Amino acid sequence: MLQYDDFPYTFEQSSSTHFPYSIEIDLVSVFSISNTQNKETLKGGIFLLPGVGLLICFGILPICLAFYMSLHRWKPVQGRFMGLTHYEKAIGDLTSAMLTLTALAMLIVGFWLLTRNWKEPPAIRSLILCFAVGLAMEVLLVGRGIELNHYVTAFQDEATWALKMKREMFLDRRGDTSEQLALLSGHANALFGSALMILLAFGLHLYGFFRKKAGWITGTLPGLLLLYASSQIISVNWDKMMASGDDDFLNSLIHTVFFSIGTVTLQISLGLMIAFALYRKLKGFAFFRFLVFLPYVTPVVAMATVFSLIFGARESSLSNQFLAMLGVEPLRWIADNTPITEYLFGWELSGLFAGPSLGMVTAILFGVWSYTGYNAVILLAGLTAIPGDLYEAADMEGASAWQSFRHITMPLLSPVIFFLVITGLIGTFQAFTHIYFMLSSTVNKSLHVGSIEIWRQISLGKFGYSSALAVILFVLIILLTVAQFSLFSRHQHFGD
Which of 144, 230, 154, 219 is nearest to 187 (CA)? Predict the structure, then answer.
């Protein structure tokens, strides 16, 4: 802040009737202040240099090196240039992967339309967003649908080029030919239908923008249409990626999603309940706070080993002994790859709809045990930062406990929850140590998350291919983080 005595301007009485004061500018003082500010900026930059250097050396450069390695055959030293071959091997058909990524962006737009405040008419920002993503989606969908229909027609006419592309186009080249052609035709029709729904959603949103109308027709309905169309596009193209790509890696991404959603949801919910309990200033408050935080500071290797013994596949394990006391048959726990939906409902499903396996549920329980205390302590700090005057004013106005929680606690605690969700999802997508040690005593592919699959390729000496998998996982984490900021950051109350 500039003090009055340092101000470089002097005011003198003037004889002019229009402006009674004349201003003299001390240029030397102006330049001296400017030099002082430059020096302070330079000092601040010098203090930032160590952090920037660490970020470049241990953050940006390793990512650049991983991308460079993914473009070459690296086994164990650099070999020939391979371009995007590793990426094509991992995700299969590149066109299907592009459509899947675009559909994910459309899915985010659909959620954005559903969560937007529609008390006001659509803004130009939402119109541009829908137009950009919708236009890209329409071009890709129509082009892919025409390509599939053209291939099916050419194959039925026994065109030479179509017969040669059977391996690339069929979902199962060894399956029945007529069945595979019917699948491709069905995929083309699904893509055309999705393109029509996206066009309708964009038209409704455009109508609301020009007519200055807000409501479910211009917001909720387009959002639902985009969600359904995006889900259909992802389903169709995921089948193609699974047929032509590395199904082990693609399945590991599904397992990562199960682990991430299950762990973050449970640990934040339980952490919030524990934080409220500790916020009541119970007897032994400090002891209980230490107790819930203890699993977070305990070495992961030791806890993973103990957890493997507790939830082991043998009948003598502690968990199975407890089930025996209740008259329940022993379970294989970590070693069991049976989907949890089959245990609960008897449904024999596969893929994303089957849900996590019993072994993955065990890994989720370990993640919840390890990080719930950390979340509880952070949420407790957020609760203690809320001014008590707000609750007193709410009590004087006759607000119930639920109304105080909904209108005071949650809005003011939302930045803390948002931070925990962001860091939790990033951490679970990178989870490795405890799952690796839990797998040391068993073989269960349903526990192979993305990081485990990358390590497995490294252990096989495929450094170039594992680098490509690491880059793909990094891109997914970045997209997930950007999506969360786009969808939920505007709902946070960060204060003044």
Answer: 144
Polymer length in residues for the chain: 496
CA 314 and chain centroid, separation: 36
One-letter amino acid at 384 equals: T
**Which amino acid is located at 431 in the chain?**
A
Task: Give the domain extent around 109.
Answer: 93-244
Contacts of 174 (CB under 8 A, 6+ apart): none
How far apart are the C-alpha atoms of 256 and 427, rounded to whole Å? Answer: 11
Is 407 inside a domain boundary? yes
49 domain residue, yes or no: yes
Q: pTM of the entire structure?
A: 0.82
CA distances from 456 to 314, 449, 453, 462 (A): 26, 11, 5, 9
Q: How far is CA 197 from CA 99, 226, 228, 370, 405, in A?
A: 16, 7, 9, 44, 39
Residues 6+ apart with CB under 8 A from 164: none
The pLDDT tens digits of the residues spanning 43-100 come to 777 888 888 888 888 888 988 999 999 998 888 788 888 888 999 899 888 888 888 8
